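Internal tracking record. Fields below are filled automatically when a chain is submitted to the structure queue. Please do not edit lines marked as system-generated. If the sequence contains nonstandard residues, flag them in the REMARKS field before resubmitting.
Queue: standard
Priority: normal
Entity type: single polypeptide chain
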Amino acid sequence: MREAGDDGDEALNFTIAQNVLREELGDYGPGVRGYVMDNRTRDIVLVHGRQDAAHAALNSSTIIRQNRSLMRTMRALMGLHIVLIGLVAFLVYRLLT
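SYSTEM-GENERATED OUTPUT FOLLOWS
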């Protein structure tokens, strides 16, 4: 993906997930095999897959929300830092003149 010019983490994560899916389905790779299971086992695997997907989606949304909060805090601290530097510069200027 990065060689193709798409260096976003989302695209890379999607590609890796697709690769894992294709390997699990036996589409390619050494020892290509398909799954053979009864309907009950298949249904359990599907439900667990949906549970895993829901868990991953919820974790992602939590991380995004926390990241936004951290970014707001960092911007506020940067603004405060700039104000304090200006104040110190002003005080130094007043003391030296």
